[in-house]
Amino acid sequence: MPVGLFRVCLLVITAIVNHPLFFLKENGTVPENTEEIIQKMKEREESLRLEQLRLEQEIADQEATQKALEKAVVLVEESKEEKVRWDMWTALSMVIFLLIELWRQDFQEGNWQDIGGEEDDMAVLGKAFKGVALPDKAVLASFYEKRILGTTGDMARMREMVEGFADDLLEALRSVCNRDADMEVEDCMGVGSMYENWRVRKPFVCDLIVPFAPPEPYCFRCQTWCSGDSFPPDEQGYGTIKVCRADEDETGCICDKTKLGEDMLCLLHSQVSSTRPSSEMEDLLCFKNTQYLDADQVMKWFQIAVTKAWNRISHKYEFDLSFSLLDSPGALKIKFKSGKSIAFNLTPVVQYENSDVYFISHFPRSSLAADVPSSTHWFLTFAVYERRFIQLVSKTLPANACHVSCLQILSFLHGKQCSLTGPSGLTNYHLKTVLLHLLQARPSQDWAPEKLEARLQDMLKFLEKCLHEKKLYHFFIGNGKVPAELGFPIIFQRAEPLNLFRPFVLRRDIYRKMVDTFHEMLRNMSALINEYTVHIPLAHTNGIRKEPL
């Protein structure tokens, strides 16, 4: 019992001692208001909740940013894959295109001139001209005899007179020039329709070309569009002429192609020898600050030289000489006291290497070089080889062959039509090119005189086909079948064929005018021929069927 009481007392004493209100802590205070404590706890809870929301928002933003980055990475990878696939398709398309282009060129090279064979293989004229018929053989023969044959004798006399005077004029030109500083002029050569005996339209104009060369120690180095360097499509058929010293390396030193530092010096060329004075190159008729021959400078030099030469020999002749065109170097006109006149062209040219291909500065009365890229670009003329080819082929044809007659008739009809409706882009050179193609394609016996009507029809069909396709290829450029007897340069035979109708592809107005003029010529053909043909009795034409085109 005493023990139990003792334990109870000890428990009570212990409880009293440990009560919090019995012994207060140091500096401790007993809260007076429980509600204040609760309010603070709620505020703390609210701040913790807001902090939690802020942290959750930041985590959500980070997750969204991460997803956007992952999506961007996926898109980049997909675009790379798509680009690779697109590049593969592009490369494959280019390969296919190149294969097609190579096949086309190979096919074209083998077939671009294979136009011979049966007449059914020739292109037929459009449906609008099925009713057009050529005059019969008797009418064509009468027309040719009356209108064209009579001009042959006049052309021969005129050629003889012009050539004699041109030789005398060039000899005087050489005498007035400084042999040490001026260009050296060679003998002239006749080219074109007057010397190929197919010109029919008056006034007759002789075309003479005069090769010239620079004085020693200089020489010309010619570069063409097919020499290996890249030329734009609109510069095909052109070339440039560089004036160099004869002892200068053709390839040139590397110091001319790279910029050396101020502290570097070429061991082969001193600074004095590597740069020529500008005045010296201008005296050599070069374009300003270049070594390239300038066509405009050549024209001015030639006109001044011809004027000086005429002043020296004018007392020997009883006529006057003047320039008929100031934008052509040698478009001259002889005026007699009787009032009659003779026109001829004396055009300076530069020989291409050792061939009879020439760089020509200006084409008088022609649109062939109407859009020259610059005055340092010279057009190439193959007129000498064209004349030789016609002479070579003529030896293999029957007597009195009709090839020249076809070209004369077609040239006459085209000229008459142009006088009625105005000039067009179609020129006599295009007509001659058509004849050259047919001369190479058809056998010799097809050019017998009695086949004049059929061959004239072939020329019209071939020309219509070229107009429709906007393709008439130069006869010599890209033609691997040129006779070896001509000695034609192989570089031009291996070149890509040159389309003479290419300028009309982008100039639709000129092309439309050219086609319309051709169609009008077809409609008016019979009327134009009958106008210059004597009356033929009906008995001569009985039994002769007009073959429609």
Query: For the report, how would you describe the main beta sheet?
Result: 10 strands, mixed
Low-confidence stretches: 21-31, 108-128, 268-277, 535-549
String of helices and strands: HHHHEEHEEEHHHEEEEEHHHHHHHHH
Quote the average pLDDT: 79
The CATH topology name of the domain at 122-247 and 281-534 reads Beta Polymerase, domain 2
Question: Helical amount among residues, as a percent range?
Answer: 40-55%
Ends apart, CA distance between termini: 155 Å
**Secondary-structure arrangement, i.e. CATH architecture of the domain at 122-247 and 281-534:** 2-Layer Sandwich
What overall geometry do the principal axes of the alpha carbons give? Answer: elongated
Total of helices: 17
Chain oligomer state:
single chain
What structural class do helix, strand and pairing data support? Answer: alpha+beta
Can you identify the CATH class of the domain at 122-247 and 281-534? Alpha Beta
For the secondary structure, the number of strands is: 10
Radius of gyration: 45 Å
Q: What fraction of the residues are assigned to beta strands by DSSP?
A: 5-15%
